[in-house]
Amino acid sequence: MQYNFYPGPSKIYPQVAGYFQEAMELGILERNHRSKAFQELFSTTKGLLKSKLNIPLDYEIVMVSSATECWEIISQSFIQNKSQHFFNGAFGEKWCNYTQKILPKAEAISFGLNENPSLQSVENAELLAFTHNETSNGSAISEQFQKQLRTKFSNSLIAYDATSSMAGYELDWEMGDIWYASVQKCFGLPAGMALMVVSPKAIMRAKEIDESDHYNSFNFILKNALDNQTHHTPNIANIFMLNRLMRNVENISAIHQNLKKRKEQFFNELSKLEKLSSIIQFNELQSDTVFCLRGEKDIIRKLKEEAEKEGFILGNGYGGWKENTIRIANFPAIPNQHYIDLINFLLRFDKMN
Ligand SMILES: *Cc1c(COP(=O)(O)O)cnc(C)c1O
Predict the structure, then answer these.
(1) Is 10 in a helix, a strand, or coil?
(2) Residues framing ligand 1 (Cβ under 6 A)
C-alpha cells in the first residue's frame, strides 16, 4: 500500500489508467490537432471545465505546456511596462525572477509568512501578480484580500498562479483576470500540460498590446483556441484524460467542501501533537490544499524515515525550509481514508519520539 501526499507531481486519480486506455482505443492520440475529432475534444473539454469548475462563460480557457510557460507568456503578452509581484515563498519569487529576465523593471514585493501582502507602495499598477496558493510553504491568499484587491485596483490586471489550487478550490474567478495551473497537482493528472483561464479584460489588454513575436504569444494561442485548435501539437493524451476526468468528478463546490472538512480534521488532530506544528498560524492564510509542518531537524529526519517504511510519501520542505519542514498535499485525488491513516501514523510517531 502506498500513500502519496507529495504536493506535485502528486497522486493521480486511479481512473486515469482507464482513460488512457480509452484514448488509445479511440485512436484520438493519432489524430492531428487540426482535425474535426480534435476540435470536438477541445471544445467539449472547455465546456466541461467551465461547468465543473464554475468558470464564468465570458472567460476563455487556453491550454499550454506548464505553469512555468505561463510565467513567460504573461511577461510577453500582458505587460507593456512593468508588473508588481507579491510573494512570501519560492514559487512567487521564481515567477518574479523569470519575469525580470524579460522585463527588467518588474518589481518584487515580498511579505511575511503570516500576513497579507502590503499594497501601500503600489502605484500605477499595470499587472499585479500573486501566488494564490504558495506550494512551497502552505500559505494562501485569503478571499477577503482578493476582494479588497479587486476593488482597489479595478483597472489593473490581476494574475494568480493557482497551480496547486485550481480544481481543488472553488475559485472566485472574477477576482482575477489571469489564472493558471499545471495539471500534476490538484487536477490529479500526469504532468505535461497547463491551463490558463483569462477574463475579457485580459483578452482586451493583450489585443491592445498586440504582441506577436513568439510561438507562444497569447494572441496567437487564443486565436487557435477560439477555433478549438492549439498553436502547436498539444498533449492530446492529457487533454483527453482531463475531458474524461471532468465528466466524472463532482462540481468544484462539493470537492472544495470535502477538502475543507479534511483540513479541519487534520488541524484538529495536529494540535494534539507535541513535535509538529503548522508554519502558518491563521486559518484564513492556511492553504486548503497544502499543509507545511515544522519540527526539529532531527524529528523531521526521523519522521521521513519512519514514513517511508510505512509507505507514506510526504513532501520534502522547500528551499530554506528543506530540513525543518514537511509538506502534505490535500488534493482531491487522495481518498479521505488516506488522511485518517496519515493522522494515526503521525499520532503514533509523536508519542514514540
Ligand atoms: C508546481 C508549481 C509551479 C511549477 O509548475 P510547472 O508545471 O513545473 O511549470 C509553479 N507555481 C506553483 C505555485 C507550483 O506549485
Answers:
(1) coil
(2) 8, 66-68, 91, 131, 135, 161, 163-164, 182, 185
Q: Structural domains in the chain?
A: 3-10+251-352 (3.90.1150.10), 16-248 (3.40.640.10)
CA–CA distance, 64 with 283 (Å, rounded to integer):
33
For 235, the 3-state DSSP assignment is coil
* Test site for ligand 1: of 164, 165, 196, 331, most ligand atoms within 8 A of the Cβ: 164
* Whole-number pLDDT of residue 123: 84
Instruction: Give me the pLDDT at residue 124, please.
Output: 82
pLDDT in tens, 280-310: 999 999 999 999 999 999 999 999 999 999 9
* Dihedral angle sign, alpha carbons of residues 161, 163, 165, 171: positive
> What single-letter DSSP state applies at residue 28?
G
- Residue 53, H or E segment: none
Q: How far is the CA of 253 from the centre of ligand 1 (A)?
A: 23
For residue 245, CA distances in Å to 82, 169, 213 come to 38, 16, 35
Which residues of the chain fall short of a pLDDT of 50? none
pTM reported for the whole predicted model:
0.98
What type of residue is 333?
A
For residues 290 and 7, the answer to whether their CB atoms sit within 8 Å is yes
pLDDT in tens, 314-352: 999 998 899 999 999 999 999 999 999 999 999 999 999
